[in-house]
Amino acid sequence: MIQITEKAIKQVRRLKEDEEQPEDAFLRVYVKKGGCSGMSYKMDFTTEAKDDDKVFEAGGEKLVVDTTSYLHLIGMTLDFEGGLNGQGFIFNNPNAKKSCACGISFGV
Fold first, then answer.
1. Distance between CA atoms of 42 and 91, rounded to whole angstroms?
2. Among 36, 42, 46, 95, whose Cα sits 20 to 30 Å from the Cα of 66?
3. Does residue 107 register a pLDDT over 80?
4. Domains of the chain by range and CATH?
5. d(CA 105, CA 108)
C-alpha cells in the first residue's frame, strides 16, 4: 500500500490546475535507475492506466504505480513540505536503505 498525506493531495491538485491537466488526470509515481544512490523517484501526470498498475486513492486524487516500481515502494508515504528552506514532495520509503541528501534518489 502507498499512502498520500493531505499536504501532498493539496499540492497534486495545485499542480494539476497550474499545468492545466484534464480533470481525469492522475499522478504516476515510478522508480528509475539513476541518481547518486542508485534509483530515483519520478512523477508524471497521465490519463492512461495500464492493466497491471496498482491504484491508490486519497482525498479524491489517484496515484498509480507500475508493478515493477511498486516492489520498491511498498509501504511508502508521499508527503509534501513547503517553507523557508524550500519545498517539495517527500518520499518516506521504508524500503530505502540509503538515500541522497535531496531525497530524490535512494538505494535498496
1. 11
2. 36
3. no
4. 3-107 (2.60.300.12)
5. 11
